[in-house]
Amino acid sequence: MTQTLIRWKLSEVMARHRVQAKDLADYLGVSDNAVSGLRKAEVMPRIDGNRLEQICVGITRLSKINERVGPYDLLEYIPEDLEVSDDRNRA
Length: 91
Hints:
mainly alpha, 5 helices, globular
């Protein structure tokens, strides 16, 4: 069985945009500890689409490098030993 990992890159994105955890926490209306927990996660945390959008908009607005942030910046898809079977050859 293969396992797929979706890597969470919030810490890297915040560092690149020079956004402080406290500033993002204030923008999101959550505690500093909540953002710290999100930053420390290596795999995508269980968050809904609205929260993901809020994080992207928050980092974009707080960014010191004036670049937009989208979900594709925060997530990286890493397939692990993906085996592809071609059922079309089986008849």
